[in-house]
Specification:
Elements: E1 7-12, E2 19-25, H1 31-34, H2 44-59, E3 63-73, E4 84-93, E5 98-107, E6 110-121
Antiparallel strand pairs: 1-2, 2-4, 3-6, 4-5, 5-6
Length: 123
């Protein structure tokens, strides 16, 4: 789990779709000592984990990624320059306990990551 260590949720305006969140990145996190030394970059896998954790927080369920239809990493995020991420998060219930998710991460007006896919509840 990355929440409360790698990032913190500063605000969440709703639990009904769409949800807007403001996240604060921890620029001093140990991940950045290896990714990359002297030039920190938020790893794409961390952004994916953040989407999963947001979905779990909103639904109250443990989830697994079952399908990723779109994952676009558009801009490198340097946590020493862009400490906050704005997240537009939409979801809807789908078949057999799964949810369809769409998320956009932004720094200011620049979209840095887009995701569309499906998560399935863990039984």
């Amino acid at each position: 789990m990355l929440q409360d260590d790698f990032y913190k949720v500063l605000s969440m305006d709703s639990v009904n779709s769409p949800v807007k969140l403001m996240l604060a990145l921890n620029a001093d996190h140990v991940i950045f000592s290896g990714h990359f030394p002297g030039m920190p970059v938020v790893p794409g896998v961390c952004m994916m984990q953040m989407v999963k954790e947001i979905a779990e927080k909103i639904t109250g369920n443990s989830l697994l990624l079952s399908r990723a239809d779109l994952m676009k990493f558009l801009v490198v995020v340097d946590p020493t320059v862009s400490r906050n991420l704005e997240v537009d998060f939409s979801y809807k219930n789908a078949e057999e306990g799964s949810i369809d998710v769409s998320a956009n991460f932004q720094t200011g007006t620049t979209v840095c990551f887009k995701f569309k896919g499906k998560f399935t509840g863990i039984k």
